[in-house]
Amino acid sequence: MATFKKTLLGAAIAATTMIAGTANAYMLGDPNDANVEVYGVVSISAVDYGASNDAGPDAGWALENETRVGFRAAKKMTDSVTAFAQVESGWVLDYGADLGNRDTFVGLRGDDWGQVRFGRMLTPLYELVDWPYSASNLGRTFDRAWRSGERYHFDRKSQMGRYDSPMFADMVKFSLAAGNGSENHEDSYFFGGSVSVTPIEMLTLHAAFENAKGTTFEGGEEGHWDTNNATPDSPDWNPAVAASIGDTDSYFVGFELRPIDNFNILGAYKTGSYDSTNGGGGYGYTEREIDAYSVQANYFFGNANIRVGYADQSGKEDGSSNSDLDSTSISGELGYSFNSVYTFLRLTQQDDSVYDNDLMVRVGTEWTF
Q1: Dihedral pair phi/psi, residue 38, rounded to 5°
Q2: Which residues on adjacent β-strands are paired with residue 264?
């Protein structure tokens, strides 16, 4: 019993000491008064790509879940400088979605000089390619640079620094970015930028460029359909080959014309090239040139809208046309907003080396919170 009482006394003394120490502790900085925002997008759709040719039978309907959630935090450093951060999740695949696989960065912004960010985010060029010029599934043609053999610009990069200017004279703003390339070493890097100009209220012009060095254009891990499940006598068998490493250049121009409040026309053109620096690795080419354009029109009436669009891509391999790089998309969309919950039907006729004038049907809904 005496031992038990001594133990209680020791615990009480220790607790008192800890409380006193905490009361007299020095706090570095100010109490946490950062503003934190939880935001997200609900986006899910049922889609039938309609592929039915030598590549295999029609896979039928599938659910594609692009729902994402993110967190934004900001804290004043001075009267004119704010520190901020963002962490965002992405595509919900069979294994779920990883927090941080979309735009996730830290940065500083000022009232007069714009903002600088470090981390994972869209490149300035791809930010324009992705929206609005690839809307309504026109990206199936206009946004193919992620594909093996067509990677002449990046989309979202994890190790990047980016500067975004403020709007100058209510007319001009620009962005600059640089970071690692397809590999994480000093010989693989990229840099690029974009500029947007609004000379008159109804017209906005865009231009962008991106250059990369030491890009792994096609790696062995991408040079086969599925060597884990295929066998040497299977038509899908194609063992991995040596990667092709080289340099890429890409350029983009686009416009948005809004002659009246409920109607707009958009158009864009981009071109890209790839030059291998190791003789093409295990592949049969050393140079590729790819051109693509996208045009669309949008009409809004009440809570509804209609969107139609067309996109085309063509390419050359070692100076000669390559039909495997050719692609066209004709797209139409009918959408309606039910109290900000946007529900849509999209139809896209796709023609390329895999889809032979196949009709893709997508029905879905999107809303933000």
Answers
A1: -100, 130
A2: 298
Conformation bin of residue 5: beta by default, left when phi > 0, alpha when psi is -120 to 50:
alpha
290 closest CA partner among 262, 307, 311: 311
Residue type present at position 184: N
**Residue 302 tokens, joined:** 């009440």
Residues 119-152 have pLDDT tens digits of 999 999 999 999 999 999 999 999 988 777 788 9
Rounded CA separation 209/152 (Å): 11
Task: Please return the burial class of 110, using the count of CB atoms within 10 Å of its CB with bins 0-12, 13-18 and 19+.
Answer: middle
- pLDDT confidence bin for 226, thresholds 50/70/90: very low
What tens digit of pLDDT does each residue of 145-194 get?
877 778 899 999 999 999 999 999 999 999 999 999 988 899 999 999 99
- Cα separation, 23 vs 6, whole angstroms: 26
Cα distance between residue 344 and residue 32, in whole Å = 43
